[in-house]
Amino acid sequence: MIRVLLRVVLALPLLGAGMGAVTSVAGSGPATPLCAQAASLHHVGIVVEHGDGQVIRRCVGFDTATATALAVLQASGLEVGISSYGGGLGAAVCQIDNEPATYPPGCFTASGSYWVLFVSRAGGAWATSDLGVSSETVAGGDGIGFRFDPQTGADPPPASPAGTCPASTPPPARTPAASVRPTAAPRASSSTPSAPPSRSAPTPPSATPTAGVLGVATPAASPGAIGSLRRPDSPPGINFGLLLAAVGSGGLLGLLAIRILGRRAV
Amino acid sequence: MNPRALAAWSLSGITIALASGNPVYRALALLCAVNVLVALRRPEVSLRGLSIALVVAGLIAIAVTTLASHTGDHAFLVLPSAIPVLGGSLTVEAALFGASTGLGIAAAVLAAAPLSLVLTPNSLVDALPSALARTGAAIGTALNLIPGIARSATEIRDAQRMRGWRPRRVREWPDLAVPVVLTALEGSIALAEAMEARGYGSGARSHYSDLVWRWADVVVCVVAPAAAIAFVLLRVSGSIADWYPFPNVSLPPVNGVGVACCLALALPALVWRR
């Protein structure tokens, strides 16, 4: 009986690893972009308002009747971090455009700010969404808004989605994907002049905020190997606390070694 | 060493280990607790069992967090999403967060361990305030029964096997469980009668020698709680931050004063002698 249990316990991780390896290989192919071409039938505007007031606008096109807000957000090219709410709620947005710099596995901290999801139907006013970003669906002409908002107080909506996408763009002739270019509207008037280095590099402003904007559906590049461990918000130079911790750890380990060696000598 | 001073140190160590989710502070608290244990543990006490248990607990924390949390950018394996709860990306970030959690558990357990591995049970009961003396005696007695029950279970299992007992199904386990429970009840009743015969509970507990406060005890009793209070204040004010490796691994934020508070926990290993 015990041997059988042992075999099962040993076999399960191996089976899981094998299945995982197969899935990993199967999933390593290129992801199908939401909007492979500029000539998309439907467009959804995205408005992202950072905690410092910086506003980013994107217009994303897609050919299906509807798309999830998550797919649209990921297709916008902005950096996105998500975590599952569990159940039918779908996924929560933990991070957009590297704000916040880090987040707990459950996405939300006890008192910190979080990304509030708003939806605008057919050019209407913003309304907070009751669903997770992966369960919320949008159609052409809708807008998706995200605002990094404190947990206390009301949730004011982000800047208006009006003008983020061309008002009525007839479906243009299909053009090669290479002609599609990402654009970002200039920041709102209340935004700070320079973005933190961790954020997306600001793109040159177009002539008008909405001129000929067609979102690009390039999925975010997959992260490479873990390179720098430096925190994105940490200033350059020697971290005194870390240095003290290293020295203290060395001292404690040395003390421990002396104790153990002393006991053995006795 | 004074048991009350050691209790104050343990409480301070647990506070620092659990007040922040930052692995740097947790690692420092753990190192301090290990130093105190190695320096002051009773000569007959072995740390082997505790070490193994903590390593196992740490590995479980890493495994559970890695399998259940699919957050993080650097996936090293992708399980099929059809598997409930476990399906999804297994990430380096989740594994590191699990390691940090395991570090916190180990630090907290090691901070509490001197109460049983350094002090004798009777000195710990003696250190309790008089209002809690009876409660402490009852808890101490109950805890002392656990190893006795384990020994009894081993003996009964061996005896049953010698009679040909070979359990193959769960429903055959009562053959072992019933005698163990009955033996434990008999032992408890015998212990209660013995305690009553010796006058336990008839009046205030007398002491062979009163607790003595030496200068080292006072220093530990003042410095350790002060460090814990300072650490909590720094945590509340935001100077000491938690560490989350999501979505990308980064070095934990470290505050120099917070590190000093952790290092203050090593004081008993320097000023106390066994």
List the helices and strands and how they pair.
The complex is a heterodimer of chains A (266) and B (274).
Chain A: H1 2-26, E1 42-49, E2 55-62, E3 66-68, H2 69-75, E4 80-84, E5 91-96, E6 114-120, E7 127-128, E8 137-139, E9 143-149, H3 240-265
Parallel strand pairs in A: 1-9
Antiparallel strand pairs in A: 1-2, 3-8, 4-5, 6-7, 6-9
Chain B: H1 3-19, H2 23-40, H3 48-68, E1 75-79, E2 88-91, H4 92-112, H5 114-117, H6 121-127, H7 133-162, H8 174-197, H9 215-237, H10 256-263, H11 267-271
Antiparallel strand pairs in B: 1-2
Number of strands of chain A: 9
| Largest sheet entry of chain B | 2 strands, antiparallel
Number of domains of chain B: 2
Percentage beta strand of chain A: 15-25%
Query: Structural class of the secondary elements of chain B?
Result: mainly alpha
**Separation, N- and C-terminal Cα atoms of chain B:** 8 Å
> Using DSSP, what is the number of strands of chain B?
2
What features would you describe in this structure?
The complex is a heterodimer of chains A (266) and B (274). Chain A has 266 residues and is an alpha+beta fold. Chain A is 22% helix and 18% strand. Chain A has helices at residues 2-26, 69-75, 240-265, and strands at residues 42-49, 55-62, 66-68, 80-84, 91-96, 114-120, 127-128, 137-139, 143-149. In chain A, the strands form 3 sheets. Chain A has a 5-stranded mixed sheet with strand order 2-1-9-6-7, with helices on one face. In chain A, strands 3-8 form a two-stranded antiparallel sheet. Chain A starts with a helix and ends with a helix. In chain A, 35% of the residues are buried. By secondary structure, chain B is mainly alpha-helical. Chain B has 2 domains: 3-121 and 211-271, no CATH class; 128-197, no CATH class. Chain B is 65% helix and 3% strand. Chain B has helices spanning 3-19, 23-40, 48-68, 92-112, 114-117, 121-127, 133-162, 174-197, 215-237, 256-263, 267-271, and strands at residues 75-79, 88-91. Chain B has a two-stranded antiparallel sheet with strand order 1-2. In chain B, α2 runs parallel beside α4 and α9 runs antiparallel to α10 (256-263). Chain B is flat. The termini of chain B are close together. The mean pLDDT of chain B is 89. At the A-B interface, α1, β4 and α3 of A face α2, β1, α4 and α10 of B.
